[in-house]
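Students often ask why we bother predicting the structure of a whole assembly rather than each chain alone. The short answer is interfaces. A chain on its own may look different once its partners are present, and contacts between molecules only exist in the joint model. In this exercise we take two input lines together and write out one structure for the complete complex. Read the inputs first and try to guess which parts will touch.
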Amino acid sequence: MITVDEKKMEWHQGITIRELLDMLENTQFCAAVRLNGKLVSSPSFDTTKIPDNAVIYILPLIAGG
Amino acid sequence: MAEFTLKEIKSLEYVRPEIEKGYTDHSLHVDLSSKEVKINAIEPKVKEKFIGGKGYDLWFMWNSVSGKTKWNDPENAICIASGPLGGTPGYPGGGKSIVTTISPLTGIPIDSNVGGYFGPYTKFSGFDVLQITGKSDAQIVVLIDGIDSKIKLYEAEGLTDDSYTLSAQLTDYFDKEKPVNISVVSTGSAAKHTELGCLNFTWFDAKRKRVRYKQAGRGGIGTVFAHKNIKAVVARWGSVSMKSNNPADFDAMKNVTKLHAGEINELDPKQNRMALVGTTHLVPIMNDHDCLPVNNFKYGQHPEAHNIGEAVYEHIFDKGFDGCWRGCAVACAHGVKDFVPFTGPYKGQKVFVDGPEYETVAGCGSNLGVFDPFFILEMNFYCDTYGLDTISIGTGIAFVMECFEMGLITKEHTGGMDLSFGNRLNALELLHQMVRGEGFGMIVGKGIRKMKAIFAKDFGADAAIMQDIGMESKGLEFSEYMTKESLAQQGGYGMALKGPQHDEAWLIFLDMVHNFMPTFENKAEALHWFPMFRTWFGLCGLCKLPWNDIVPEDNRQNPEPAKVVKHVGWYADFFSSITGRKVSPDDLIPMSEAVYNFQRLFNLKMGYGTREFDTLPYRAVGPVTVDEYLSRIERYDKDLTENYKVDITGMEIAQKVAVLRKHREARYEQLKDAVYKRRGWTSNGIPTVETVKRLGIDFPDVMELLKANGVE
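Now the answer. The structure tokens for the assembled complex follow.
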């Protein structure tokens, strides 16, 4: 089980951030997430695997300074 | 602490105008030449059209300067205003000041949006806007004392040039018992030797029992301040509450404040964590997306960038509340205590550093090829202390370093200094030279545009290559984002009124990462809406960060998530509740449009403001050099073959660089056409008669200006 934006979701071995975002609605503007407190940016979404019990926050659209 | 004297030379007692619905409806004018102090009523039609903040600043400047006024002429004005919503405790970002003057770098109005308590305190003291003109023979301190209802001018002797110490001394001097009542505006001693001077605006941090700082950094406002011989401008005011603005609908104002602050308190810890890390979260994100400037914007990424991002600064920042306005929930103005510089007059002493923010990290770190968080702290500290803009300093020294590595300048020109990328000690030495008024630092302190001319004329350097790599437009140094792969952001910088600062439009991710605006018309629409809406914050005395750096959890369900529509609605409610002027979200853009177009016309009045000045160095558009092309060869080859349908078979890299350049530069010109059309401007970038009439800024002198420029 993982927590995404404070909602529980099923976890499976090997799931990547990209696969997770594809399962959610309206994530086309997501450029970064926090995975267990650490920033992960979109170029790494395909290769970053989510561990079980992870806590994930989808960051807002990056808006600059 | 050195002794100083303040000799009172003028004192004006006044009846403090009461605040009504966010406004005092009065302006304060100080002429430093004649020592005249005047208080004037602000006409209702000015209030209706220019709203406040930057709008008021520009209106009073317009009436102070002629088209021939230079930055160092006495009639050049420094204007400072908050806005009708500024000074609301608890509303996130609700205490900003906007400063304008004719810039020594650009010759046109520069505007800078800054935290600290000065703007709200000046308003509560009775004045929606402060205008300072003239030039004093002696060093002057101006006091706006709203508690005792007095304006005083002092001749100062013996005050330090060090902006940090000066602010602390004056805070202590003017209200030793309640230092929180004081906000000081000052610059540092490098401002008088350079054209990159900034202003430091203070607030008193009661918990840490020290004066804190935010900077009005851009465009050399501090240089104008120093040239006028102003040592400091001090505002003194007492208690502040949610009723201080005397809002039209207190309950509605309280409600929207609670909603916005509550949301930030709940969501910031889950999103960008700005209350912990400020804007340093942007460093790794920009780096990962190839947008962090490295080595004078040559590259957008570096493997050591993680050393200067949020993961490091989170542990260096001093913990505690860091709002630059009272009760701001974003609270992003972090600092570092007990930092010990390894160079300069503070070498070996413990100091407090206010910052760094993203721009300083990128400008004075990665863009110089340095990935040492403590070096960045030292650059940050000395820039603030000496009164220098960290952005122009970072971008300027990056340009110098690339010129040095290319052999355009040598040790013979730099006074023996090796200024290769990564040379930390010599980068710091340039700052110390600026404050001493000596050496090669004096040339660097003139800014990139003048450096290019000096290097070409005096050192025989190649002017064409310097034009390509010197990251300035309109004379202002670029802020710290890579734009090569975002045409929309190229427009966001190239067509920004004051020069390439990202506060008008930040569209890199929407454009480059998400491909949300594929057509020229899409980009033009964005380059209309976003600059207009961002302008609105400067009219009202607000910070833009709470708008779109923390967003509602359901924001991504909105068809236009970048606009953060829910927050736009809150801002309309906030404006209505304070001013009593009922507005809807759709009304906010036309408010800004009038002031935005007026500023464009102001540029025209000063001899600029047309298409030829909305240019970019090619480094902002594409790869200048062969090795730059090679570093991203797949990307550029793909652009040539897929987007421009070029057969690259058998092409040398240099040839590819040239062909790509031709296409990308043409594309930028097409973007200009689309944006000008959307903004209601001629193809030469001048607002049309129809536009100025629609916006109600068809004043007689505006119409004369248009006619003189062939627009009838």
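Check your guess against this: The mean pLDDT of chain B is 97.
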